[in-house]
């Protein structure tokens, strides 16, 4: 398989990288775009090996640097079910990219760690000699960065060296690509593997629920939503969705004919102005970290409250916010914690309504960054299980997979909802029973009466369609938006009502640069420090001596930047800032 003559001369590792190590971290490989083409080439080789190890199922490659500046780029591989590259392969990626002798490293991987897979593949090839020859299957997509196409070319050259077959999806959001990979490997049972299929599945499920909502004049739901596209790919895709939503005719839907409002999506920071720059002064990361609105915010002129949200550069994160005119334009942020509490609370109600709460369990997965108020609300008021794991989507995703319904969100707005096979089957079976019983009914009676006026039937109906409105492969700003809007509309809730579910404690995030950030070791999902030995006691003492009743602080080495991150929260912003600064002093 690995024929040294086929390794291209074109994408040689530059000499300045010969004694540097870069690693496949939580965000894959990510750095300045002009230092990446040789990395992409090697990732093309790795993608083929990964596909071979998975019986030639499709492996995805997303070219993006997410919320990072436009000049950066990066690459992440996607496993057959649409989740991130398996952890055991991260070290192969790091080894291949850092190798100063590519052929030797490739050969060594194939003859040792990957021996079984390669042998099996080669035997299959021999057995199939007269039939169809199996080749590694890869799909790729990229975001709107100017560097994307050249990097795509390098990746393609790499995979061709190992006879890989490539499907290029071109411009897509990261979660769209994850979705396509899952569709391709499951014979379309998850959906059709193209963009129309993605949007069809979502809009169809969305309308099934939307058309059943009784919008009354007293409801406080705001059907206008202003979306900050971070000047990236998410802007184009949400515009497409918005066009689809507004073009659906109400005759197609089981409504009683009364006029339903539409969800009006207004996109700003869409990257179409010459001065627009990806993620610059806008987007979910900017809004969350700076705790302020993005540039070009379309403010209302009539004093009416507006509901906003921001995507990040590859549209896998979303945060909501609003300005309260009655409080001198006070800015309120509804981050991943608020989204997960809204979603989990609603799922809890639906499970109770459908009388399934003793059959299907529910859990919220958070990280140490989750606001203490959210954890308190989930555990002590909602009585839902909350689980805490280390930072990084893969940790949240794996933990959420342990439950029948796992709702996971990082405070930064990345998250989704996972349903186990068991939960899906129960919901599908009960829903099919429901539909069987209703076969005789006239359609308008069915929806307007039979389902709508019965809590068990209605809850089941919503559960079935809400689940089809979720991208279960990875956090997806577009599907998260639809789910949040549906829940707010069903609850006749304004964004301010949602915000009042609980009040966030003031928090502060700071970073400290030290010589070697890896001297800091943590445990208990990064909430406590084990090394240096005295550091945790010192943090505990500061927290204890703070005047605040609710103080909390932790430190952890960043996985993406050469810094140590410090987090603090307390009763007031002043006490929070004081605590955060004191903890920084300890780290220096
Ligand atoms: C990466 C992670 C994100 C995490 C962030 C933390 C993925 C896809 N992304 O962007 O989930 O919040 O790193 O960065 O896993 P830090 O370690 O520098 O604080
Ligand atoms: Zn992102």
TrEMBL record:
Keywords: Isomerase, Magnesium, Metal-binding, Phosphoprotein. It comes from the Eukaryota. SUPFAM superfamilies: Phosphoglucomutase, C-terminal domain, Phosphoglucomutase, first 3 domains. Its cofactor is Mg(2+). Binds 1 Mg(2+) ion per subunit. It catalyses: N-acetyl-alpha-D-glucosamine 1-phosphate = N-acetyl-D-glucosamine 6-phosphate. Residues 543-584 form the Alpha-D-phosphohexomutase C-terminal domain. Belongs to the phosphohexose mutase family. This is Phosphoacetylglucosamine mutase.
